[in-house]
TrEMBL record:
<feature type="transmembrane region" description="Helical">
    <location>
        <begin position="367"/>
        <end position="391"/>
    </location>
</feature>
<keyword id="KW-1003">Cell membrane</keyword>
<dbReference type="Pfam" id="PF07690">
    <property type="entry name" value="MFS_1"/>
</dbReference>
<feature type="transmembrane region" description="Helical">
    <location>
        <begin position="12"/>
        <end position="36"/>
    </location>
</feature>
<dbReference type="InterPro" id="IPR036259">
    <property type="entry name" value="MFS_trans_sf"/>
</dbReference>
<keyword id="KW-1133">Transmembrane helix</keyword>
<feature type="transmembrane region" description="Helical">
    <location>
        <begin position="280"/>
        <end position="302"/>
    </location>
</feature>
<feature type="domain" description="Major facilitator superfamily (MFS) profile">
    <location>
        <begin position="17"/>
        <end position="426"/>
    </location>
</feature>
<keyword id="KW-0997">Cell inner membrane</keyword>
<feature type="transmembrane region" description="Helical">
    <location>
        <begin position="155"/>
        <end position="178"/>
    </location>
</feature>
<keyword id="KW-0472">Membrane</keyword>
<feature type="transmembrane region" description="Helical">
    <location>
        <begin position="335"/>
        <end position="355"/>
    </location>
</feature>
<keyword id="KW-0813">Transport</keyword>
<keyword id="KW-0812">Transmembrane</keyword>
<dbReference type="InterPro" id="IPR005829">
    <property type="entry name" value="Sugar_transporter_CS"/>
</dbReference>
<feature type="transmembrane region" description="Helical">
    <location>
        <begin position="403"/>
        <end position="421"/>
    </location>
</feature>
<dbReference type="InterPro" id="IPR004736">
    <property type="entry name" value="MHS_symport"/>
</dbReference>
Amino acid sequence: MNDRNAGSEKKNSPATVLFASLIGTTIEFFDFYIYATAAVLVFPTLFFPSSNPTAGMLQSLATFAIAFFARPVGSAVFGHYGDRIGRKATLVAALLTMGISTVVIGLLPTYEAIGTLAPLLLALCRFGQGLGLGGEWGGAVLLATENAPPGKIAWYGCFPQLGAPLGFFLSGGIFLLLSETLTNEQFFSYGWRIPFIASAVLVLVGLYVRLKITETPVFQKVLDKNERVKVPIATIFSEHSRLLVLGTIIATATFVLFYLMTVFALSWGTTGLGYTRKEFLILQLFAVVFFALTIPISALLADKYGRRITMILVSIAIVLFGFLIAPMFVANDAIGVTLFLSLGLALMGMTYGPLGTMLSELFPTEIRYTGVSLTFNLGGIVGASLAPYAATWLATNYGLHYVGYYLSGATLLTLLALLLVGKQKSITESGLTPSGSNS
């Protein structure tokens, strides 16, 4: 009760809100991406030994997919409490779940030490990562958007999205540093564990910042008026199922594009195209800069012209980009590959920037945490969970052209959902805060 009263008396400063939403998702995505990188570079050898390197790689990528199936579970669990007791407490719990799972991965014995128990424990920890991220992302987006002033909903909403490129840059950077300072034998012996264990420091920083924030004013009004829904997920499925399906499909192309440009590209670039781990990580880290730069640009456009229109235009560009994968992603052409990665991740930023804001505007406040988390993470299952696996299989059996067709086809579905969803009321237009923004 005291927490509620404090939340209604004390307001979060814009700087605190934006930093708290940014730091949390940066930590979450850093943890998530170090697993993705290790799934390509380390786990096939240490946790899935096989006489066939491709089989080991596919088994490792299969554990990568586990988190995407755990994320909707996290959405339901954390979303329930986020819509029942508040955004703040739920965000702290989600961050702890993700952080503990990541640190434990860094402490796991390998297949050589405990046999088949090693990949089983790895899969369990991966499930924990997905569970935490399933509750983290939606809460971070709502922390930003529900504190936003009129006309700046997408701008505030892009700050948690910036955690994705920052987390990726940190994870790629630390693996690159380890590759430079350690021998190959040292890296596989203990070096790969360092990013997982060191993430504990980042989690402590994130917890400190999250504990300083107060409840969002939009949700505080729901608490004050006692308008909470008893079982948010039941309300979503019974009254908002159409928007749940359309929101999931809207998020699909974003996931397919990102995991093709990161996990698949790193895997294929260092195996099928013959680039060294160091060479390709440098190319990816350079390209991630464009991902980070286009997120705020797309948010500004979304606030000015509307979230839906912005995403429709970007989706058309991604459909066309799918036809460039095969001619640009080739061996012995570092400049061409750099341009390819930069263009793909720039388009990723353009679609990712307004995505969180648009999804959050599909649902009313009392079920918004659950709704936005479910749509985003179900989109992860449809778009990302099998993307690296499917793309590797397509490239191996039919060539890179079919990877491009895969991306274009998924984006056409997203484009259709954007056309069907129509214009939604923005968070400020719902009457819970002063009106004045576009959707």
